[in-house]
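Appendix B. Raw example, untouched.
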Amino acid sequence: MTDTENPQVENQNDNILLNSELNDERSAKTVVEQNAESVGVSTPTENAPAILLEEVDVYQKKILILPKVSFTIKKGEFVYLVGKTGAGKSSILKVLLAELPVKNGRVECAGYDLRTIKTRNIPYLRRKMGVIFQDYQLLVDKTVKENLLAALKATGWKEKKTMENRIEEVLKLVHLETKDFKYPYQLSGGEQQRVCIARALLNQPEVILADEPTGNLDPISAEEIFQLLHDINRTQGTTVLMSSHNFTMIDKFASRTICIEDGKLLDTML
């Protein structure tokens, strides 16, 4: 990730898809509902926020980098998280992914209380979230389709036709349906990032966390990625929290912005 080291590829797989019990029965109860007592959270209500942080001290390697962080993101919102390199943007995303512990305060994401979540249930949290990194983390020896197929298999999908249908759906969403046979090295940087967005969408996530997704892209490709993420937010209703330094695109695709400055959060919603 941008401020600190990226998660391992194993964690990446956990962010993609629900367990196999849900693959053929989308109307079934969510994992949270089925296991609420064991996870230590209550079933989320319709009006519950997608993300909530309340008086949270954010640490990195035992060093307090952001004190008393508080903000709420409603379901379906698109929010930018901005600030200088090292300000703590990636650390906040890691808190939401349960990679950094919550030592005090209150943190909830996608229906989970991250103060009480058990280690064995963290993969279920991450399967309700899509994560997009600055460096694409694609398998270079596999085609676009094979990359997505590997992600599906890693998280429990088994029916070949079901997997192929889902891959076709997400590739259409990112406008890459004619390039499923290509390898990452045959794609532009913008196209590779579209594959990553497709991978993040496989599980129909409630929340997308995007950490500097256009940091390695040219201005035209960056604009296309901004447009795509806003389109997904609008058409799919997916909550998006995106860290970025690209203020030109933030101005063009205006939305609520949380700025980290001198250890404090400045929120345009307030």
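End of appendix B.
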